[in-house]
Amino acid sequence: MTIKLLIADDHHVVRRGLVFFLKTQKDIEIVGEAKNGVEAVAMVKKFQPDVVLMDLVMPEMDGIEATREIKRALPSTEIMMLTSFSDQDHVVPAIEAGAAGYQLKDIEPDELADSIRKLVKGENTLHPKATSHLMTRTNPDQQSPHEIHQLTKREKDVLLELAKGKSNKEIAASLFITEKTVKTHISNLFSKLEVSDRTQAALYAVRHGLASPDRKF
Fold first, then answer.
1. Average pLDDT over the chain, rounded to whole?
2. Angle, CA of 198, 203 and 206, to the nearest 5°
3. 217 lies in a domain?
4. What's the structural domain count of the chain?
5. Is residue 73 part of a domain?
6. Are 56 and 116 in a shared domain?
7. Which of 35-62 are b and which e, b meaning 16 or more Cβ less than 10 Å from the residue's Cβ?
8. What is the pLDDT of residues 72-126, one digit of tens each?
């Protein structure tokens, strides 16, 4: 499978550096480069990439607003934030806008390529700092919505582990079940919670005060 990738960053040197490395990856095709959010939205509609590498701070339209626009126009396109900002004020709004991945610009090139592949596969691609900010986000809504009560006990366990940023393999080891079983539980809870990816499931758990290891359902 060839992954169609769009790069959105207002710094020409950064874009050139990303292109220089990523074009060497046989399974990644760079379909466009945008220097601001407005261009990114237009290019997504034109080229329909699988993934957008999105900078946060750009002129005309920032990465968060561009992410919202893209997810409205083409929900199947995954957004990975690639930024220098790791604070909660940037991480949480980006994920709430629809970004499924969040990485920092000091990431090693090979790790970035692997993160893009993982994102397409639906695996966790959040930087540990992003996961930490999600887990510590103060949430005034501590009421469990009706969707939570549709989950089985094991699905709830998987949701808590997923919210901690764990991979399928790590969840399987933690809960003493197979990876195949983990995938089945994740698919079921996605359907019941009406979310499309791991990041949005984790965000759902945080929003409703469920992402605490001592939380009682």
1. 86
2. 130
3. no
4. 2
5. yes
6. yes
7. bbbbbbbebbeeeebbbbbbbbebeebb
8. 999 999 999 999 988 877 888 888 899 989 999 999 999 999 999 999 988 878 7
